[in-house]
User: What shape does this take?
Amino acid sequence: MNTQLSPGAQTVEDTRTVPSHGDDGDHERFSHYVPKEKLVEAMVTGTPVIALCGKVWVPSRDPERFPVCPECKEIWEGLPPGGGDGEGDD
Assistant: This one.
C-alpha cells in the first residue's frame, strides 16, 4: 500500500513543549503558590491559575492537605520581601 499526500498538503509536527515536573502525577501531590486574589477568583469562577513553578490547573482541593511544592517554595524564597502588593510584613 502506497500512501501519498495530496498536492499542496504537508506534514506538520507539533513542537509545543510541556514542562516536566518529574514522574507523572507527582505534581498533583503538592500545594502550589499562586497570588491569593487569583486563587480566590479561580475557586469562584473555575478558571485556571498558574503556579510559581509553572503548573496550570483549576484549584478544587484543600491545599492544607498537601505538602508545598519544592519548586514553588524555592522560587518564593528567592523573591524580594513584600511581594510588591504593598501589604508585606517586612
User: Anything to note?
Assistant: The helical segments are 36-45, 70-78.
